[in-house]
Design brief:
The protein has eight helices and six strands, in the order H-E-H-E-E-H-E-H-H-H-H-E-E-H. The chain is of the alpha+beta class. The protein has a single domain, classed as Glutaredoxin (3-Layer(aba) Sandwich), CATH 3.40.30. Strand 5 and strand 6 form a beta hairpin. Helix 4 packs parallel to helix 5. The termini are far apart.
Length: 208
């Protein structure tokens, strides 16, 4: 079972707007209620990387078929190295069509079975693929990384995985995220691509 048709269509409608490109300046920050940040951190699907109790939390809502998310993923190892006190959270936000939905199901299944430390190599590997990324391609990468594909297929098709995706979509909608990538840094949101330097500026801003 995948996302309900109504939920998926709502996501596709939201993603039909032009996706913000990387610009000379970072997207304008908008304040968000702390409760929505806390709700995002509480998502079962939230993949927490970096410092376990960082002084700043940065959350990225992303889609595996988003070109700007690909650029963001490429910067992630350097960001985690440069910001050792940062907690970085990945939230699968599959709004760009059926391939994204099936890729997310496979990725979340991998997360369920192998945890956040194993997730980062898969995350980076999926963004290195050329062309559309779907569930079949994601499973091939998982197999290459040593994952048990039979167990993963069962987890991917479970009601739990479907619910995780619905919960993430509902929360992203509450945050007003209409495109990927979208970020939360502290209690500020940024919709659109950010360079590594822009991310570090937003992190410094959150530290005050």
């Amino acid at each position: 079972m995948i996302l309900s048709r109504r939920t998926l269509l709502a996501g596709l409608a939201a993603s039909s707007a032009s996706v913000p490109a990387f610009a000379q300046s970072a997207p304008e920050p908008q304040m968000v209620p702390i409760e929505l940040v806390e709700d995002t951190m509480a998502l079962n699907a939230a993949v927490k990387l970096g410092h376990r109790h960082g002084d700043v939390i940065m959350i990225e809502y992303f889609d595996y078929n988003c070109p700007w998310c690909r650029k963001s993923a490429a910067d992630l190892p350097a960001l985690l190295k440069a910001e050792p006190d940062l907690t970085y959270v990945l939230v699968n936000f599959a709004v760009l069509g059926i391939p994204s939905v099936t890729a997310t199901k496979a990725a979340l299944a991998y997360f369920q079975l192998y945890g956040p430390d194993a997730y980062l190599p898969l995350h980076l590997a999926l963004f290195k693929l050329k062309g559309a990324v779907d569930g079949a391609r994601a499973l091939k990468e998982i197999e290459r990384l040593g994952g048990d594909t039979k167990r993963l297929e069962e987890a991917a098709n479970s009601e739990r995985t479907t619910q995780w995706m619905k919960d993430a979509f509902k929360l992203g909608d509450s945050l007003g995220f209409s495109a990927t990538p979208s970020f939360l840094v502290g209690t500020e949101s940024y919709v659109g691509g950010m360079t590594l330097a822009q991310k570090r500026e937003a992190i410094a801003r959150a530290r005050g």
